[in-house]
Amino acid sequence: MLLGFVILYLVISIGIGMVAATKVHNARDYISAGRSLPLAMVLAMVFATWFGAETVLGIPATFLQEDLGGLISDPFGASLCLVLFGLFFARKLYRMNLVTIADYYRERYDRRVEVVTGVAIALSYLGWVSAQITALGLVFNVLSDGQITQAQGVLIGAAVVLMYTLYGGMWSVALTTFFQMIVIVLGLFYIAWLISDLTGGVVPVLEHAAANGKFHFWPELNAVAMVAFISGLLTMGFGSIPQQDVFQRANASKNENVAVWGTLLGGVAYFLFAAVPLFLAYSANLIDPALTAKWLAEDSQKLLPELVKAHLPLAAQVIFYGALLSVIMSTASGTLLAPSVTISENVLKGFVTRRKHLSEKKLLLMTRWVVGCFSVLVTLYALWALGEATGIHQMVENAYKVTLVVAFVPLVAGLYWPRASTLGAYLAIGLGLLTWVPLEIWLPDGEGFMPPQFAGFLAAIAGMLIGSLLGKAPHRTKTSHAT
Known about the structure:
Blueprint: H1 2-20, H2 27-32, H3 39-50, H4 53-65, H5 72-95, H6 101-108, H7 111-143, H8 150-199, H9 202-211, H10 223-237, H11 244-251, H12 256-273, H13 275-282, H14 284-287, H15 289-298, H16 303-311, H17 314-353, H18 360-388, H19 392-399, H20 401-406, H21 408-416, H22 422-442, H23 452-470, H24 478-482
Helix pairs in contact: 1-8, 1-17, 3-8, 3-11, 3-12, 3-17, 4-13, 4-19, 5-10, 5-11, 5-12, 6-7, 7-8, 7-17, 7-18, 7-19, 8-13, 8-17, 8-18, 11-12, 17-18, 21-23, 22-23
């Protein structure tokens, strides 16, 4: 019966997405919903896209195994990204009337920088989208009592998300995530209320967590620990700023004020509400210690779903799994669309249009084909990650290393430093990659003084400074005035 309710929910979500597809008439509708969305919908999209599988399953699992300091990348770094984007990037980028974030690199620098950053941005989504698809597989596995394997669940989940994202694009993402945000907030608050009855309230859970050192946050006072801590914050906090999904939500707004406030309020809402899954998962220590010990030893990501299934009535289970599916699907659809759009608009389109003119209809068709192809790639990566036993939280953390190294410095310098030049962008990307990639291969676990991506980030800053200061100052073009 529970599985039947879940299937019904999936059908409703697909239906909403297909209705939204009727609003798509050209590529710009597909990519940015015609830049017509109000504040409530933009806020909902920002919140629901970032409140993903890692927030409900991955972050609580990390918290149970480590402490609050283990969450420095997410939710702390993730929330920082959204707040910074709203304050310092949304208004400037909205005024430029771009289609994708990678368009900025072409306008400010050149086509080569656009292609390299576009590829880097697209690759960064591989881990994030795969984490959502992996979580869908986990949910189907738990719901079916193991009758559906996690690998089979990955295939089912990928097919469902692809179905409504493929046709409706940003309109489907907007309408489905608005519906899904309501389910997420109301559903998880209701589950938290039921769980607090089983624990004797919120205070006993907090006291138990404090007694076990779970609220320890700051690193040890030594250079290696502090650099790792800062790197964890900046990898997510800075690395996820030059991302198509963040830009796309701001760019779909009906005006620049909505772009700013939708992103800013979405980030604050995400940070505050991320505490709810932590409370739910840690409550298992008080409600069922044996169940907690079992799943901490086997797969801590399954603890919260198994707790709900074992201790809450059927109606509550339906609400929880509806909310959980909303969490995963809202993030999966948005993060599947973002890299696909980047590849079609900033990589493939330029090569195709050199040979012949590409009509709006053909551009839309090409973008949909890329969505389908990227879905296959994501599914294969998710199946590979299952074999490697890579955690959902870790998959998301790893996603932003490449954009921190390649895309962040050219974006900030281009917006805020008139002297930033194309040579500076070349050197920033080149030195960043040449520093990060070898260290990532030779020291994948951060065995050196600093994590590889942080070293690459510092090298990118040096490259931008050297290239821009030594080279000829760029001309003040119309684009640089706009920025």
